[in-house]
Write a structure and sequence with these properties.
single chain; DsrEFH-like; signal; 5 strands; globular
């Protein structure tokens, strides 16, 4: 029986030779996205912002060259990363604050959950000027998804292996 099955499938069927992968230029139009940041360690904020970079940078470069009017990007903070946008912690988180300022200047909106703000003991005056405080992260998540925004929740894990080790 096995021989009959194997006879039906050519064992050494060559795959079509292809020199390399194919690049596809997807026809993106007016993307709307909500990034949901809920991190267990504020030190992971830098890695989470790479998710934002991976979305924004390709869309602001040729051939798309989107600007504020062409796309809408919101980043919602409601985990431990909230401490990175407190003015008193700016020196400690200087690199990520500078990156957030840069993206805010590009039109990305950074929002903080008002409930989490209170839980952390902060007030509006404690936040960076590019931050908008909303009533609740949960209501924001529902609201923006109801407006057609795609939801991206970065997964930031602890790095165990270098790229060289797993390549």
């Amino acid at each position: 029986m096995l021989a009959a099955c194997l006879g039906a499938v050519p064992l050494l069927a060559p795959w079509p030779a292809q020199a390399q992968a194919t690049f596809v230029q997807s026809p993106y139009k007016n993307p709307k996205v909500l990034f949901d940041f809920y991190l267990d360690n504020p030190a992971k904020m830098g890695a989470a912002l790479y998710w934002l970079r991976s979305f924004v940078n390709p869309l602001t470069e040729a051939p798309y060259s989107f600007f504020n009017d062409d796309m809408s990007v919101i980043v919602l903070l409601h985990g431990t990363e909230l401490v990175t946008v407190a003015k008193k912690n700016e020196a400690k988180y200087e690199e990520v604050v500078q990156r957030m300022r840069y993206y805010a200047g590009q039109g990305v909106k950074f929002k903080v959950c008002g409930l989490a703000l209170k839980d952390f003991g902060y007030t509006l005056a404690d936040m960076q000027p590019f931050i908008e405080v909303t009533p609740s992260a949960m209501t924001e998540l529902v609201h923006w998804q109801n407006q057609g925004y795609g939801l991206i929740t970065p997964v930031v894990t602890d790095k165990r292996f270098s790229i060289e080790e797993i390549r």
